[in-house]
Amino acid sequence: TTNTNNNNKAPSVVVHACDDKGRCIFHPHIQLRKKAIMGVLGGWKDIRRFCPDCERQEIIHELIAKEANEIEQMERILDQMEQLDVEYLNDDTDHGINDDVVIDVANSNMSGSGDGSSYSSQRNTATAAGKGRGGLEPPDPPSSRRSSMSSKGSKSMERNPGRVEKMEEQRQQQQQQQQQQQQ
Description:
Layout: E1 33-35, E2 44-46, H1 52-89, H2 99-110, H3 116-131, H4 143-159, H5 161-182
Antiparallel strand pairs: 1-2
Helix pairs in contact: 1-4, 2-3, 4-5
Region (Disordered): 108-183
């Protein structure tokens, strides 16, 4: 590109480079300047301030760079979310919830008398028993993160099919440990 002053001998703005006939050096079929017929010293007159083909290519390159940047950013975000999801799945803490109490309440509700009042009292008992740590409520699991991960999870499973098998093995091991503890 050339940057010149404002005396009509050359373009007054930054334009794409021109050859000695006033054509774009990248697209010789585009005339950017022409010789001025009138004028004290002659010189060049601007026909176009910029080459439309060069401008189009520049816009395309900017869009491609922007899209590549957005894709890279989304991949980083997905990797971070996947890492957090795996950490949550591998978390062994029960957050103060006693699974035995929840199972007992669920079983008693299934064989319950059928009126709604007993269900609510049993539910309150289970909730109070489940708190277990000084009456504090257990933290809610990150359900919003799980729901947002559901669409991404299938894609990550496609990328890493071994992960599904590993998660299934972990579930089976946990079930076996629970059965051994019950016996």
